[in-house]
Amino acid sequence: MSPEIDVLVLGGAGVDTIVSVPQLPLPFADSYLVPAVETRAGQTGDFISLGLHALGLRVHHIDLVGDDHHGDLVRALHRDRGIPLTTAPMPSGTRRAVNLVGPDGRRMSLYDQTRGGGDGPLPPDTVRSLAKASRHAHVSITYPCGLALPALRREGLTISTDLHNWDGANPYHETFAFDADVVFVSVAALADPERTMRRIVELGRARIVVATAGADGAYLLTGGELTHVAVATPPAPVVDSNGAGDAFAAGFLFGWLAGEPPLRCAAYGAVAGAYACTVPATVVDAIGREALLAAAGDGAAAGDARGER
């Protein structure tokens, strides 16, 4: 019997307050008049879920979410987009952050450390039940999700994760880096991206490591070969980089689950990431399947991401 869920997304639910600022870094001043301050649901797990769902995959998102206004925003986002969401109580409150966004689309995120520090784990029985119905799991790097990794492995799922701005040295990230089949990481804090990518493969179980590099594209390590992936041309002016890495991962996984070669998957990721940069930070949106395939030069069809891997 085929799985009911293509991708089980664990963690990464939360709310961002977007503040448009005149420049980054922001010079010290007593006060600023800014174009906009807006709070909306959407952090890494939410964006991954939305991106995969927009590409036609069957997605289920699970996380700890607070019984608060911010949690209501997260639940409403999933309900409105038709993305199944399973939540468990988060006593410290829903994760939240403030994103400062400059006019060139760059952003700086400030995360509230009072949220989620001691919460968890995700309900083990629920994780096992959802894993049994899934093909693949994408795991956010929060503490409760790390505890769920053994259960995902026992159910035979392939796993992906995004290490975000890992410096290549913090041992906390190694739990995720060394137990995933597909690893995404940003080059932002890496002194030697290639060395870190090869270390992930040597010490872990990764088949593929992708290091995203913003306007410089990305780097793909697979089969021992490192390849540069060119950035895709955005379909509209770049206004914000928030969620671009999540969009890249969603595009890549769409191709990977359809059995596409890694370079084609990376091309899908580049297209999805470029699209995300054209979406204002106050809006939650993702590229659809037809637009992705057209921009990647695939015409009207590609392998079906359901049931092929």
TrEMBL record:
It comes from the Bacteria. One of its GO terms (molecular function) is kinase activity. The keyword Zinc does not apply. The keyword Transferase applies. Pfam families: PfkB. Residues 191-282 form the Carbohydrate kinase PfkB domain. InterPro entries: Carboh/pur_kinase_PfkB_CS, PfkB_dom, Ribokinase-like. Keywords: Kinase, Transferase. PANTHER family: RIBOKINASE (PTHR10584:SF166), SUGAR KINASE (PTHR10584). This is Adenosine kinase. It comes from Dactylosporangium aurantiacum.
